[in-house]
Amino acid sequence: MSGSTVLVHGSLGGSGIPSTPGRARRWVRRLTSGDEIAHLITLIFAASIFLVTVLLVFELYRNSALPRHKFGWNFFVTSTWDPVAENFGALPFIYGTVVTSILALLIAVPLGVGGAIFLSELAPPRISDALTFVIELLAAVPSVIYGVLGVFVLVPLLRNYGEPVLKSTLGFLPLFQGPMYGVGFLAAGLVLAIMVVPFILSVSREVLLAVPLDQREAALALGATRWETTWKVVVPYARSGIFGSVFLALARALGETMAVTMVIGNDPKVAASLFAPGYSIAAVIANEFTEATGDLYTQALIELGLVLFILTFILNGLARLLILATTARGSEHA
Amino acid sequence: MGGSATRTVMAPVPQPDKAGEAVPATKPGGPKIAVRSLNFYYGPRQILFDINLSVAEKKITALIGPSGCGKSTFLRTLNRMYETVPRARAEGELLLDGEEMLGMDVAALRRRVGMVFQKSNPFPKSIFENVAYGLRVNGHEPGKRLADLVEHSLRRAALWDEVKDHLHKSAHALSGGQQQRLCIARGLAVDPEVLLLDEPCSALDPIATAKIEELLFTLKDSCTIVIVTHNMQQAARVAEFTGFFLLGKLIEFNESRVIFKNPSRKETEDYITGRFG
Amino acid sequence: MNYRLLWRKTVNNIMLALTGVCALVTVAILFFILGYLVWNGGRDINWAFLTQLPKPVGETGGGMANAIVGSAKLLLVAALVGIPVGFIGGVYLSEFGGSAFPAVVRYTADLLNGVPSIVMGIFAYTVVVLPMHHFSALAGGLALGVMLIPIVLRTTEEFLRAVPQSLREGALALGANKWRAISSVVIPAAFRGIATGMLLSLARVAGETAPLLFTSFGNRFWSHGFNEATSSLPVMIYTYAISAYEDWHRQAWAAGLVLLALVLVANIGARVILARRQSPARG
């Protein structure tokens, strides 16, 4: 029996290197007893997630080699998209993606943040919960359904009423000039806005709810109205989280494919007017991938996919940092 | 508390300030658990300092002391529950019937040394399944039926009559006191040699507390009991031996009537008389 | 009356109304979508629609039976790929991990979650369609399956973490080893939440169209096994909606209604189940 002091380290799942034969035997027994195997198996599965992601990036990169070598950085500033002459430039798609996303945000952010403020600060709890429930359902509606409604409802509405009205009131702006087809940047931006509002709303609402109670109470105790408390204390506190939700929504809008494809007009041109038909990165991949003849064509589309991936990666990373910042601050105060 | 007539003859209980006094290991009548020079750390911070203590077999030993004195931490070394925390570390000797606890297979150790927690933690399963859990995990004698073993444990925990018609109801349907007795039954099902109780009554009302104390009296004939309590009257009522912890050190350890009537250390006396803690 | 106070109160009420309008507009959109779909698609849903194959172009009638079955096949493959990886990975993150590697896994899962679905389709294309030289349900299912992983991972981890530590300790104190404690106490305790998370994730990918466009592609007939191009509900809706035929437009509405109904039922069902499990333990 051991008579001297024994040094043992308490451990969680990992095992140290056994230092004596007795301990080695015990380590082997632990290994076959199930705990270490379970640890190993679950670790392998978790690691496979990392591996899949790496593989994804690798495949995107590998399969876009041809256009990368042929066009280099010019790919991003050329606006011709000519499959016949095998001349590919990404500019119209980047332009379309950016324009529709910005338009979507301009509409969705006030709506979403306003609604979030209402639901988190001003509304009675039962109404807030019921409405939040419904809005989170909106986030579950498939994109293609928004597209169907866009094509059959929104586009005719725009063509017959919306765009003429805009043209007659704001037609002095180059944004609202030109022929009115219904499809185009405006339609795509509107559809995107509708799709993105639920995200902004629900994330902003959560971020606002995470603001510690004592902040609100301090303001109210000084005689501020509900609105003043909200606008001057709670929202600024949650500001970075709200920005985070906007970035998340932007990332989502950039990658949105089906609804945009169905209403943007599918014309690879850069145009100043919102009434003009355009194209987005996701839309062109969706439309032309199966018809792409030749490797250069296909790989040019894959390179566009790589661009999209990088954009959403950066945006999502920033978004999570911002949201983390707000909730972390909240828990410091708690 | 039993009278002195039933005092067992055994080796003298070592006092903490007499360092190095050996306790015979496997001598009959020797202590059930012997702790020697135990030091305990969370990472770089030391929590327990040179603890020396013997737990007598089939007796109730109580550990008292103010909040944060380390008594619960000490209790959790006795079944190595601290190993769930990454940076916890125990150094020293912990002997169960003379055998080194730190070298044993931890699951086998925990079958022999059971634990009941401060806040009852029944599994979200039926009453029957809660009690049967330890038996299912550790296996049981092939000759006995599981249902009989479950009933036996529930009887030992003085809960059988109250639940015998509801064995398949959820454990969460029971009251707080009943849930704690269920946890005791669950711990008893694997027939442990030692039962560790960490402030088992602190979340319970006086009547439920009284029931559990009564229960402990009946249990000690078959099971060594170590109970951590912040309630001194409870320790005086229930335990034959009491240890007083303060700031991670074992200040005094002796028969309860000595500790409570005639303590030899000033800190003990101060605590008992309520001057602090 | 103090005019400044009156002004502030007025502003307060106006903003209450305005922000309420924002919320109501958002909600109204859902009801509008539902209403329009029911209105337009409802009359075309009948038994024939649900059980027949599409008719040749130009002929009226026909159904989307192959699209329903195709979607089911794709979801099956997706579930086989994504659910085990997400679930077991979630168990790892919650029960075993240290601090560095799990953080990496969580981060990549978040990254994967943010990948646009069409890029996922490209991935499946390069990994399955290219080597096999044809479209298949396998490829489509793989794309959907990879999309499942981050969602299942996150919900599994979240619900496992929510199980109180005292339950784990109770099991360990009874002599169970760590894996036994996890599989017989912790996972069952979290199971309802985990299962609804899986259900919700399946509902989410069931509606995805983009990743299927060049992986499972589409099929006007039954597909045999998992190695052929397969029809699916979302792709069928898309193809019909952008076509030139009035009859196909009507069918697109009907199919859209079916898809939306399935998705909403799954979502509402999941939330109801989750809400019910919040009932507090008595005693």
Tell me the count of domains of chain A: 2
As a percent range, the share of strand residues of chain A is: under 5%
CATH-defined topology of the largest domain in chain A = MetI-like fold
Spatial sequence of strands, sheet with the most strands of chain A: 2-3
**Range of strand content of chain B:** 15-25%
What integer is the average pLDDT of chain A?
84
Q: What is the tally of helical segments of chain A?
A: 13
Number of strands of chain B: 10
Biggest sheet strand order of chain B reads: 6-7-8-3-9-10
Q: What ranges of chain B have pLDDT less than 50 throughout 5 or more consecutive residues?
A: 1-27
Mean pLDDT of chain B: 86
Secondary structure elements and pairings:
The complex is a heterotrimer of chains A (about 325), B (about 280) and C (about 280).
Chain A: E1 7-9, H1 21-33, H2 35-62, H3 65-71, E2 81-82, E3 87-88, H4 91-122, H5 125-138, H6 143-170, H7 185-209, H8 213-221, H9 226-237, H10 239-255, H11 258-263, H12 281-288, H13 295-333
Antiparallel strand pairs in A: 2-3
Helix pairs in contact in A: 3-13, 4-7, 4-10, 4-12, 5-7, 6-7, 7-10, 8-9, 10-13, 12-13
Chain B: E1 33-42, E2 45-55, E3 60-64, H1 71-77, E4 88-96, E5 99-100, H2 106-112, E6 113-116, H3 127-138, H4 146-156, H5 160-163, H6 176-188, E7 194-198, H7 206-219, E8 224-228, H8 232-238, E9 241-246, E10 249-255, H9 256-261, H10 266-272
Parallel strand pairs in B: 3-8, 3-9, 6-7, 7-8
Antiparallel strand pairs in B: 1-2, 1-4, 4-5, 9-10
Helix pairs in contact in B: 3-4, 3-6, 4-6
Chain C: H1 3-41, H2 47-51, H3 65-96, H4 100-114, H5 117-132, H6 137-161, H7 165-173, H8 178-206, H9 233-241, H10 246-276
Helix pairs in contact in C: 1-10, 3-6, 3-8, 3-9, 4-6, 5-6, 6-8, 7-8, 8-10, 9-10
Write structural notes for this entry.
The complex is a heterotrimer of chains A (334), B (277) and C (283). Chain A has 334 residues and is mostly helical. Chain A folds into two domains: 22-62; 68-333, MetI-like fold (Orthogonal Bundle). Helices cover 71% and strands 2% of the residues of chain A. Chain A is built from 13 helices and three strands. Chain A has helices at residues 21-33, 35-62, 65-71, 91-122, 125-138, 143-170, 185-209, 213-221, 226-237, 239-255, 258-263, 281-288, 295-333, and strands at 7-9, 81-82, 87-88. A two-stranded antiparallel ribbon of chain A has the order 2-3. The longest helix of chain A has 39 residues, at 295-333. Chain A is flat. The model of chain A is unreliable at 1-18 (pLDDT under 50). Chain B is α/β, with parallel strands linked by helices and 277 residues long. Chain B has a single domain (32-272), classed as Rossmann fold. In chain B, 32% of the residues lie in helices and 23% in strands. In chain B, the strands form two sheets. A six-stranded mixed β-sheet of chain B has the order 6-7-8-3-9-10, sandwiched between helices. Chain B has a four-stranded antiparallel β-sheet with strand order 2-1-4-5, with helices on one face. In chain B, helix 3 crosses helix 4 (146-156) and helix 3 (127-138) runs parallel beside helix 6. The longest helix of chain B has 14 residues, at 206-219. Chain B is globular and about 55 Å long. The two termini of chain B are 25 Å apart. Mean pLDDT of chain B is 86; it is low at 1-27. Chain C has two domains: 3-44; 49-276, Orthogonal Bundle (MetI-like fold), CATH 1.10.3720.10. Chain C has ten helices and no strands. In chain C, helix 5 (117-132) packs across helix 6. The N and C termini of chain C lie far apart (54 Å). The interface between A and C is large, with 89 and 91 residues. Strand 1 (7-9) of chain A pairs antiparallel with strand 4 (88-96) of chain B, so a sheet runs across the interface.
